[in-house]
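Anyone able to model this chain together with FE2/S2 (inorganic) cluster?
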Amino acid sequence: MRRFDKRIESQLVAEKSRGVLESPAPSNGTHGGSSDAVMDSRALIPPLGLREYWYPALPAKKVGKCPLFWVMLGDELVFFRDRQGQVVALTDVCPHRGASLSEGACFYRGYLTCPYHAATFDESGKCVAMLTEGPDSKMVGRLKARVYPTQQVRDWIFVWMGEGDPVPIEEDVPEEFFDPDVVVVCNYMYWATNWMMATENHGDAHNQLFVHRNAVSALLTAHPGRSRTPYGPETKTIGDQALLMLRDEGDYYATEKNGTAPYQLYYPGVDGVWPLHRWRLLWAWFFKRLMKPNPLKTSEEWGYGHHMPCIQRTATSFSGTNSLWAVAVRPNLSRIVQFHAVRPPNRAVYFWEMLSWKLFRAWMSYNFVSGDNAAIAPCRWWTPENLSSTDSHLVKLRSFVLTHSRDALRRQAQKGGNGQAGRTAKAGGTEAMATAGSIES
Ligand code: FES
Ligand SMILES: [Fe+2]
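re: yes, here you go
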């Protein structure tokens, strides 16, 4: 086939409908959708994520001497370092005339200069000089860019994306991150899907048997995933923060003989068994012992399951505990940030944890979870669903997000006439702050 035709065809495939269908008309910040829009709770979930939370943005070491462009929850940000070397985040949109601040430069240590008319901002977003207008510029002290509060935890920069005052970061970041005896390592990747679809997938352990069957860790352990069962997991809500996944009917197909389900199950509709073959069991016995989960002991709130806003907590195939964030980037793109935490009992285990993570475990975990990306990226969010009982967790998750998130509580409080709205809106007007910035008079 000619190269031209090939290009068109791959473009058509790339543009295939998937993920969230953007609303043709401005909506109220929810999925809205077209005339075929979803008529269930999905329509109410914001396609660019919940705002009133701390989110992991990027590793601190990525921010050097030059400004760095980054997208979070659809907002375009620029990161640079202040005079003390701390990472700060401003909107990338220059409040003067909209130039991209990340295209600018840090001529003076701790200050960011716009590439257009050289407005120069400090870490509070205040214009401290307008190089093209001279020292008497009236913009100095009056022009202001929106600041996104940042904090460094371990070697990651977290950003407060809310319009209200930031909550203590300990509310949104797993407790073990603050324990000096725990080692936390991290990797991240992009999935071509919406944050909520990614979040739902992280809690959807029933895809393990199928989606990850050829991942290296699954090949080694012949792990059939969550025990097969036609029932969904039990769940438990912990305040407004967590929706835990409790045990499911793991022994549903267990035989009376040994109390466990057979590796292969027979499906009369196709007159065949799944998994198709048993050869993976050849070495599984050995690797299953090597890759025994040994999760951290946690408080109930930070147990296994969903934690607001988009964190899934799981035990890993090796030792330790995973926290997987699905951070919205664009409506159809998510940054999947995975932290792996382990408490090494001694220095030898510590070095093994660090070395094995660098040598092969980070790759193995990437290899495992990228199967989800391949499976869910083409999923449509707006088509009608026919849910099974094993999807019960996502019905609860959607309802939890819609009723218990800070964003939802804030809206409820506003409707109830409470000006405090859960968290106090910043002075100066959140509308202006939410876009590019403002000129203070
Ligand atoms: S657009 Fe940035 S200084 Fe003019
Ligand atoms: Fe999966």
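Residues 23-28, 32-37, 419-441 have pLDDT under 50 and may be disordered.
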